Each structure stands twice: as C-alpha cells, then as structure tokens.
From TrEMBL:
Gene: pqqC
Function of the protein: Ring cyclization and eight-electron oxidation of 3a-(2-amino-2-carboxyethyl)-4,5-dioxo-4,5,6,7,8,9-hexahydroquinoline-7,9-dicarboxylic-acid to PQQ.
SUPFAM superfamilies tied to this protein: Heme oxygenase-like
Pathway: Cofactor biosynthesis; pyrroloquinoline quinone biosynthesis
InterPro entries referenced in this protein's UniProt entry, alphabetically: Haem_Oase-like_multi-hlx, PqqC, PqqC-like, Thiaminase-2/PQQC
Catalysed reaction equations from the record: 6-(2-amino-2-carboxyethyl)-7,8-dioxo-1,2,3,4,7,8-hexahydroquinoline-2,4-dicarboxylate + 3 O2 = pyrroloquinoline quinone + 2 H2O2 + 2 H2O + H(+)
Protein name: Pyrroloquinoline-quinone synthase
GO molecular function (one): pyrroloquinoline-quinone synthase activity
EC number: 1.3.3.11
Similarity section: Belongs to the PqqC family.
C-alpha cells in the first residue's frame, strides 16, 4: 500500500491477492491431504490438531464480541458463536468436528483433553486468540477474512478426501457442509466492514497485515504437521503418536 489511502475496491483487491498468495490451500501438507497421499495416521494428526483451532474459535469471537460498541454489531458477531458452539448440546461446528475425529478412529476424550497437540499448534492458535483480543476492532475483524477463501478449500477437501480415503464418509465430513454457506455470509459482513472503516493508509496497512498474520497462523499449523508427521522421527515429546499397529 502507498502512503495515501486507496479506494475500497483497491483495498479489496489487495486483500484477495494476499489470499491468492498465502492461503493454506497452497501448503504441501494440504495438497497431500486433498490428493490422497497421506496415511490414515497423518489424517488423524491433522484432525486432532485442527480441533484445537476449531474449539478456540468461539473463545476468539467472544473476546471480540465483548468489545463491539453497538447492538447491531454484537448481533452479527453473536451468530458466529452459535455456528461453532451450537445452541444445544451436540450441535454446532465444534461438535461436528468431534464427529470427524470420531470417524477417523480417535478417542473423543483424548481429543478433547488436548494432550496430543503439537506445541506449535497451541502457540499458533493462542496467538490468534490473543491477536483478536488485543488489537483494534478493525484488525480483529480483518483477521477473519481468510473466510473469503474457505469455500474453495472446503470443496477441494470434501471431494478429495471422499475420493481418496476409504476410511472417510460423508457423515465423517459433516462439519464442512454448513460452512459452505456460513463462511461466505460471515466474510461478506467482515469485508463490508473493512471496506467502510479502513479509511486511512495506516488503517488499510493494518488490515492487510491482519490478514497476513491470520494466513501465517494457518500456514504455521501445517508446517508443524508436515514436520512432525511427514518427515520421519520428528514427533515432539507428548504429542499424538499414531498406533504402530
């Protein structure tokens, strides 16, 4: 970005360019996941570690909800909590993710205990929660704009995993179908907010850096998975170790 503010259309184009370059669908681990070249234990490791991201998203959203200044904004953001936490036991995205880990043969109590997380997973996700808690409302909302790109990766993931893994079923992947409508709804709101409120060059730079940061969080999580579960001999102490049988 220049020292002068750009138009909302130019800002949006710059945000979309970040996704085209940095979104984690480009990561080698994700390409392997979608392409069917991972083993079942490697897919288990992905689902287990990703659970921490999924279960912390409502906490992230709650920290922002508490700071939003108007009822209109709070009502909009509150829908995200319901999407992930549900409005009754066993509903919502987090519960559906546990059905994924169940379907992959992971013990639910072990997944929920978080005992098997990679250290880098914990650090990356916690950094995201802290970012949304501590940065400006504008930056916090902008960091959610990875949802602009998620329908593409969800479609690739569902199609690829169903095609290539005989241990995956449509029921196992039930988490993803609602996200095909939830994510565009959420990203439309966040993008409109950013287009309206990022008016100065400084604000626009902060918005772009927020999206870069979020892309970095997702990329770092896959770096850790790739290093621990694709490269032999690198699983850190205490992390999930697949059953050798």
């Amino acid at each position: 970005m220049t020292s002068q503010p750009v138009s909302p259309d130019a800002l949006e184009a710059a945000l979309r360019a970040i996704g085209a370059e940095r979104y984690h669908n480009l990561h080698p681990f994700h390409r392997a996941l979608h392409g069917g070249t991972l083993t079942r234990p490697q897919v288990q490791a992905w689902a287990l570690n990703r659970y921490y991201y999924q279960c912390r998203i409502p906490a992230k959203d709650a920290t922002l909800l508490a700071r939003l200044p108007t009822a209109e904004l709070r009502r909009e953001w509150r829908r995200r909590l319901v999407d992930h936490d549900g409005d009754a036991p066993g509903t919502g995205g987090v519960a559906r993710w546990l059905k994924l880990t169940d379907g992959l043969g992971l013990d639910r109590a072990y997944v929920e205990s978080l005992d098997g997380l990679l250290p880098a997973t914990r650090f990356a996700v916690d950094a995201y929660v802290d970012f949304v808690r501590d940065r400006s409302i504008l930056e916090a909302i902008a960091s959610s704009l990875t949802e602009l790109f998620s329908p593409t990766i969800i479609s690739e993931r569902v199609a690829g995993m169903l095609q290539h893994y005989d241990f995956v079923t449509p029921e196992t992947l039930a988490y993803f179908q609602p996200r095909l409508t939830q994510a565009p709804r959420d990203s439309d709101f966040a993008l409109a907010y950013v287009r309206e409120h990022a008016r100065t060059a400084e604000q626009q730079a902060a918005v772009l850096n927020a999206l870069k940061f979020k892309c970095g969080v997702l990329w770092a999580m896959l770096d850790a998975l790739d290093y621990a579960y694709v490269v032999p001999g690198n699983i850190p102490p205490g992390a999930f170790r697949p059953d050798p049988s």
